[in-house]
């Protein structure tokens, strides 16, 4: 494909390779290293003058969120001052997405700060997937395409759960209700909701189930699996309420802290995540993890953006 360059950061080179393969090209040459004092050094290895540049860097989940963010900002800046025609930041998992509002006194809105940094670095366009909160798009003054993993999730449910017509789609919190209702409507099944109260961040105090899951397969759907405390407790609550089996489907599998041990010791049959974050090492520890490939959705979004085509089709369908 002429006039297009795809650069991969250190966060997820395998995903960049898959996307480039779909576009019939190879990831462009870039050297990423650190100086002795741990400053990030970026050397773009080929000309980008007048080119349409896409920089892929997943923003969280690999233990080096800040390094990967800084690496992406420097790559964007390097391409911009090397006269690239347009620089698009492809961020499958947006960093700091959960810090999207001022929920207590003196709290920062870090997602807005990241948006400002990307814009100042020189990004002309952002492609991301399943933002924690859709209003993050409003933090930018440049175009943002928020892709959905929903079509891939629907495909996985239909192909891997035998009696999927009898399942119930469950949201583990009130914030994810819209996502769950959309999936339940497209599958033509019922949905349920779990209301949770937190004492402190990352620790759930009490849960209440709203909806009927008795003698049905429950599928918990959320955007992010971090410490997995919520999803494991939600699964226990669903089992107590009479669910036959419990599955969990999350777009971004961060799995930090005790997450893998919690999942292995839980009643969850399988926890399904996309490959917006690398999962190879985690699958070796926790065989309950299954991975959905979303490289075709991101790759097609890049192709359509490059050719000036609409990407609306991708919000409801998986590209062939």
Explain this structure.
The structure is a single chain. The protein is α/β, with parallel strands linked by helices and 320 residues long. Helices cover 31% and strands 27% of the residues. It has helices at 13-22, 65-81, 110-121, 150-160, 177-187, 229-240, 259-264, 280-285, 295-307; strands at 4-8, 30-34, 40-44, 52-56, 86-91, 125-129, 144-147, 168-171, 190-200, 203-210, 217-225, 245-253, 268-274, 289-292. The protein has a seven-stranded mixed β-sheet. A five-stranded parallel β-sheet has the order 1-4-5-6-7, sandwiched between helices. Strands 2-3 form a two-stranded antiparallel ribbon. Strand 11 (217-225), helix 6 and strand 12 form a beta-alpha-beta unit. Helix 1 crosses helix 9. The chain starts with a strand and ends in a 13-residue tail after the last helix.
């Amino acid at each position: 494909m002429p006039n297009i360059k795809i650069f991969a950061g250190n966060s997820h080179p395998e995903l960049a390779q898959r996307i480039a393969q779909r576009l019939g090209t190879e990831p462009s040459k870039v050297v990423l290293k650190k100086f002795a004092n741990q400053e990030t050094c970026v050397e773009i290895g080929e000309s980008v003058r007048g080119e349409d540049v896409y920089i892929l860097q997943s923003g969280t989940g690999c233990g080096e969120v800040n390094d990967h963010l800084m690496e992406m900002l420097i790559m964007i800046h390097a391409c911009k001052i090397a006269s690239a025609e347009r620089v698009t930041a492809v961020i499958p998992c947006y960093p700091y997405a959960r810090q999207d509002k001022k929920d207590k006194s003196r709290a920062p809105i870090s997602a807005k700060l990241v948006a400002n940094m990307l814009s100042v670095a020189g990004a002309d366009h952002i492609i991301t997937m399943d933002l924690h909160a859709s209003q993050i798009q409003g933090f930018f003054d440049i175009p943002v395409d928020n892709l959905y993993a929903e079509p891939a999730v629907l495909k996985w449910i239909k192909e891997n759960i035998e009696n999927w017509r009898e399942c119930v789609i469950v949201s583990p919190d009130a914030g994810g209700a819209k996502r769950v209702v959309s999936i339940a409507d497209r599958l033509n099944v019922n949905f349920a909701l779990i209301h949770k109260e937190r004492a402190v961040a990352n620790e759930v105090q009490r849960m209440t189930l709203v909806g009927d899951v008795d003698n049905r397969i429950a599928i918990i759907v959320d955007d992010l699996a971090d410490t997995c405390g919520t999803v494991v407790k939600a699964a226990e609550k669903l089992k107590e309420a009479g669910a036959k089996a419990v599955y969990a489907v999350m777009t971004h599998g961060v799995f930090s802290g005790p997450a893998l041990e919690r999942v292995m010791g839980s009643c969850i049959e399988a926890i399904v995540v996309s490959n917006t974050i690398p999962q190879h090492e985690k699958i070796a520890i926790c065989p309950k993890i299954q991975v959905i490939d979303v490289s075709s959705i991101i790759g097609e979004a890049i192709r359509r953006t490059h050719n000036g085509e609409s990407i609306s089709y991708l919000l409801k369908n998986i590209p062939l």
